[in-house]
Amino acid sequence: MRNHSNIQRRPSRQRQQKRRPTPSSIRLIALNKPFNTLCQFTGEADDITLANFVSEADIYPAGRLDKDSEGLLLLTNYGKLQARLTDPEHKLPKTYWVLVEGEPTEQALKQLRDGVTLSDGRTRPATVTVIEEPNGLWERDPPVRIRKSIRDTWLELTIHEGKNRQVRRMTAAVNHPTLRLIRASIGPFQLNGLAPGEIRDLSDSIEDFSLLDVTKK
């Protein structure tokens, strides 16, 4: 029998966060993460990372946003706040603007709203609305591949969970692949005109939201 007594286990992310000292000043910033940017501060020589846009030290992303997705990313220097923003038990709603291939039928929209079955389980009910192209939308670099023979549709989709590449897999499950994915809001925090690669300091507004009362403990 294998002896596990001397095996050194890697500390969990939550434990690592708890070991960080409480900063003298709690920071929270929003970044509009551009397309093709890694959601981390390091990478290979030719990678675009968060370090290209965020110069502040000792600050970490609260959650993930895939390399091929764009939009709102929150970063903080406080481990408890980071955990509070990402803990699925608190079910912070996340809203996305999603360009899908084709024109979803009412049946397809109902499937998305009711929940679809993915390889790792069924999704929770979601809010889904067909919308016009969002106001002030920036051009993506490179542009989205558009086929003239197929009309594409913008959806506004809000979920309360965070399965891996969930939105893309949800739309694929109803036969409407995602062509472009932009996170517009996380809980009370929104893009609000933030341009790709730009940051906004939210530190002064942290305690304005009761759902972030972890800062008072």
Q: Any chance you could write out the topology, listing elements then pairs?
A:
Elements lengths: L12 H7 L8 E6 L26 E2 L8 E7 L2 H8 L7 E7 L5 H9 L2 E2 L2 E2 L4 E5 L21 E7 L6 H8 L4 E9 L2 E2 L8 E3 L16
Parallel strand pairs: 3-9
Antiparallel strand pairs: 1-3, 1-11, 2-3, 4-8, 4-9, 5-6, 7-8, 9-10
Helix pairs in contact: 1-2
Mean pLDDT: 88
How many strands, what sense, and barrel or not for the largest sheet? 9 strands, mixed
Separation of termini? 45 Å
**CATH third-tier fold name of the largest domain:** Alpha-Beta Plaits
In N-to-C order, the SSE pattern is HEEEHEHEEEEHEEE
Structural summary, described in words:
The protein has about 220 residues and is an alpha+beta fold. The chain has two domains: about 90 residues, Alpha-Beta Plaits (2-Layer Sandwich); about 90 residues, Alpha-Beta Plaits (2-Layer Sandwich). It is built from four helices and eleven strands; from the N terminus they run H-E-E-E-H-E-H-E-E-E-E-H-E-E-E. The strands form two sheets. Strands 1, 2, 3, 4, 7, 8, 9, 10 and 11 form a nine-stranded mixed sheet that branches. It has a two-stranded antiparallel sheet with strand order 5-6.
